[in-house]
Each structure stands twice: as structure tokens, then as C-alpha cells.
Q: What sequence folds into this?
């Protein structure tokens, strides 16, 4: 994607403008932190309802660092796997790993208040209290702007707990890398992020050794896709709540599978079950870049966490996490936590783990269909240097269906059609029952 002169010579280093123009930005925030000239800031694109970086041309000296660390246009999985794990993964769906588990924190409050199991929160608290890390890059919802996320470096147990729970909105987690880059020389950190955040961090570490030395623990969260800011607007509209009435918004927590909490300035509180708000088609508010993402299990993290959607756990009311432990350090930390009875773990085989994550196949097996449509319309796609399975014919139809509903979600005046879809789904399930 390098810019060429008429003599076919590279004119200059590409910048993140290339990524933004081609709609490949994930909004991860890496470029904001890594730019040595502070020439990039993130702003919310009102139309696309996602974060987009803005380059200040006056400050930019065209060093190319932002582009090199940007995972929006490319993630060389082969190179990064060799760099991190010393080999390519045997398991295409999960990535490299040492062992897989289901588990949960034994502290009731931590477990109950997390999205599932409370293991990420407990792991960070343990690493902090044991002096393994000095802080952790995490994200909470802003108090000032309750519908916006606030990535920050947590340095106390209370701050880590404050950042528990999932955030179903765009999260530019890597803007907080700046604080890690500016921290004292001997300080060590954990980072918590979605696959796209971890991709950006791993790429940035390739060109910034200081960052690589400071980040000793990469904790990844499984991700199917994020939800753009219009998703929350849509929900509030359905609930007849004005955004300026909202004091606090927790997307998930309160046991398993969890509820959304909307607290109003008036003092009223609403709890909405996760299944209930996903039934409203909240899940159609997908940034298009997410449909081109190939990583569900956060393959480049040291340890990955997800929800344990297993039939035998359906009646569990507190929740359990799925854990993929990928290196010796994370294995050691997990076993120390078990021996101190801070967490409980059960080994699980990789096939069972894949069974708990139906969307693994959406990401890997069907990605080629979505790439096909992007290419068909002459649009740029990210490069991954990764083997992808061949999709089935019906997967192409499913991709068209997906883009249809993403299109509808992107047009406020079409939101009424979601009611028709819900109505159709109800009738289809009714006819299946009789
Ligand atoms: S580094 Fe992240 S935020 Fe910056 S352009 Fe790339 S994908 Fe977008
Ligand atoms: S689907 Fe991929 S790009 Fe989108 S939020 Fe998840 S990890 Fe990031």
C-alpha cells in the first residue's frame, strides 16, 4: 500500500491516513501512543460511530512508525507467531497454547460482578499484589461521559475492579500505551485487550524494544466483533431514554450470563438481560472492519479469556471463563493462584473449547466469503499471512445477509426494519415448533 511516484519509486512512508481512507482502521489507538511527534489524535466519526485517528500534518515528520505498528492494514500472523511462540500454531482456530481450562475466581463479588468468572480481574490483582507487574492497561466506562470508554493504567486493586465487565462499544485501549512508554525504566505492565489491541501492541513491540520489555503479560479477550456507538443509541431509543439522562452504563455483569445496567441521573435503574438486548438486533451494529477480522481467540496474547458457553454450564448463575494459557509464565501464575485457592480451574480439551465458541468458525471458516465481497466491490482488505479454511457455498449467502443488516443498522431511518426481523424470527421459530 506504499505511495509510489510516477517512476514507480516509493514517495514517502505511508501514514495511518492510508488505513483510514481504505476503511481498515479498527480504532485500536496504537498509532496515537506510538507516534513520537504526538501528531495523531482519536476522534469519534459521527457517521460510522467508531473511533478514527486524525493526523496533524504539521506535526508529522513522515517517520512511518504509526503505519508500521498499525494492525488495521496487516497482521503477519506467521512472523508474529514465530517471534512470540517460536513456531506456527498447530490449531488454526485457537492458535498456540500450552493448556485450556474452564475456571472462575473464588471471590464471590469479583466473580459476580465480572462478565464471566472474574478471572481477568483476579489474575491482574494477583500479578499486582505479587509484584509481577506495577500496573495494568485496562478500560472502564467514563464517569463524565457514561457512554464512552476510558482506557487507563490501573495501579491498585480497586482500579482493576473498577475496570471489570465487558464494554460493548468501540474501545481505543491502546491510547493508554503512552503511559507505559513514559513510565519508569524498571516498571512492568500487563495489558488487557481484544485481538486487534493485542495485534497492535505486538506490532509496536517489534519496533519499540522499550515497550516490549515493559509489557510482560498480554491478556486477550475473545472477540466476535465490537458494537459501534450507534448500538447503544439504538438501545436507548428503544427504551425511550435520552443519552443525557444516563449516569452509568454497564454492558454486562451481575452473574451469568449477565445483564446490562443502565442507571439514570434520576436515580432509576434498569437491568436488561443480555439475551433481551441482543434480541433487539443490537448485534447488527458492527463496524465493517470487524467483519474482516480473523482472530477470535486472541491468538497472539500470552493468555486468552472468553465466556464458557457450554451446555453443561447453562444452569450456572455465577459464570465461568474459558482460558487458553499460551506460555510458561501464564501457566505458572495460574497454578500459583490455584494452589492459593484464589481461583478454581478445570482442564478442558481444545475440541470442547471450540464447541463453547460457535463464532470461532464465523471468524475463520467464513472470512473468505466476506473478503470475496470486499474484493468484488474493489475495496482494500487487510493482509494476514495466515491459512484460512475454505468456506461452503451457503456461507456466501450468510455473508450477504450479514452485510444487509449492517447496512440497515447504519441508516437510522431504517431501524424500524429490525422490528420486522424480530417478528419474522418469532414466526419462524413458531412454525419450527409445530
Ligand atoms: S493503529 Fe489502530 S487506530 Fe491507528 S490507524 Fe491503525 S488500526 Fe487505526
Ligand atoms: S472483531 Fe477484531 S477488529 Fe473487531 S473489535 Fe474484535 S478484535 Fe477488534
A:
Amino acid at each position: 500500500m506504499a505511495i509510489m511516484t510516477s517512476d514507480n519509486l516509493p514517495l514517502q512512508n505511508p501514514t495511518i491516513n492510508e488505513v483510514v481512507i481504505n476503511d481498515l482502521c479498527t480504532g485500536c489507538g496504537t498509532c496515537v501512543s506510538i507516534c513520537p511527534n504526538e501528531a495523531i489524535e482519536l476522534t469519534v466519526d459521527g457517521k460510522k460511530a467508531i473511533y478514527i485517528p486524525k493526523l496533524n500534518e504539521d506535526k508529522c515528520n513522515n517517520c512511518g512508525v504509526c503505519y508500521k505498528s498499525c494492525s488495521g492494514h496487516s497482521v503477519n500472523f506467521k512472523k508474529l507467531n514465530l517471534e512470540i511462540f517460536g513456531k506456527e500454531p498447530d490449531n488454526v482456530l485457537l492458535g498456540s497454547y500450552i493448556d485450556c481450562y474452564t475456571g472462575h475466581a473464588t471471590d464471590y463479588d469479583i466473580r459476580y460482578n465480572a462478565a464471566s468468572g472474574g478471572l481477568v480481574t483476579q489474575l491482574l490483582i494477583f500479578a499486582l499484589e505479587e509484584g509481577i507487574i506495577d500496573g495494568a492497561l485496562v478500560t472502564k466506562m467514563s464517569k463524565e461521559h457514561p457512554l464512552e470508554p476510558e482506557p487507563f493504567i490501573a495501579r491498585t486493586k480497586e482500579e482493576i475492579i473498577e475496570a471489570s465487565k465487558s464494554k460493548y462499544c468501540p474501545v481505543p485501549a491502546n491510547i493508554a500505551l503512552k503511559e507505559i512508554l513514559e513510565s519508569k525504566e524498571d516498571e512492568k505492565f500487563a495489558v488487557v485487550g481484544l485481538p486487534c489491541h493485542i495485534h497492535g501492541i505486538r506490532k509496536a513491540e517489534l519496533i519499540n524494544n522499550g515497550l516490549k520489555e515493559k509489557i510482560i503479560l498480554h491478556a486477550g479477550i475473545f472477540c466476535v466483533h465490537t458494537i459501534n456507538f450507534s448500538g447503544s443509541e439504538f438501545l436507548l431509543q428503544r427504551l425511550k431514554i435520552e443519552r443525557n439522562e444516563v449516569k452509568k452504563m454497564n454492558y454486562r455483569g451481575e452473574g451469568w450470563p449477565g445483564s446490562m445496567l443502565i442507571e439514570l441521573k434520576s436515580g432509576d435503574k434498569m437491568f436488561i438481560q443480555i439475551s433481551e438486548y441482543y434480541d433487539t438486533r443490537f448485534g447488527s451494529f458492527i463496524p465493517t472492519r470487524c467483519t474482516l477480522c480473523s482472530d477470535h481467540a486472541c491468538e497472539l496474547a500470552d493468555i486468552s479469556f472468553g465466556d464458557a458457553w457450554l451446555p453443561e454450564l447453562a444452569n450456572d448463575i455465577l459464570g465461568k471463563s474459558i482460558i487458553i494459557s499460551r506460555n510458561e509464565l501464564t501457566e505458572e501464575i495460574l497454578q500459583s493462584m490455584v494452589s492459593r485457592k484464589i481461583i478454581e480451574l478445570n482442564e478442558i480439551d481444545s475440541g470442547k473449547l471450540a464447541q463453547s465458541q460457535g463464532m470461532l468458525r464465523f471468524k475463520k471458516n467464513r472470512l473468505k466469503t466476506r473478503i470475496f465481497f470486499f474484493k468484488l466491490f474493489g475495496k482494500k482488505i487487510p493482509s494476514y499471512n495466515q491459512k484460512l479454511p475454505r468456506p461452503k457455498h451457503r456461507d456466501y449467502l450468510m455473508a450477504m445477509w450479514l452485510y444487509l443488516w449492517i447496512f440497515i443498522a447504519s441508516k437510522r431511518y431504517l431501524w424500524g426494519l429490525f422490528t420486522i426481523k424480530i417478528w419474522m424470527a418469532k414466526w419462524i421459530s413458531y412454525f419450527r415448533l409445530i
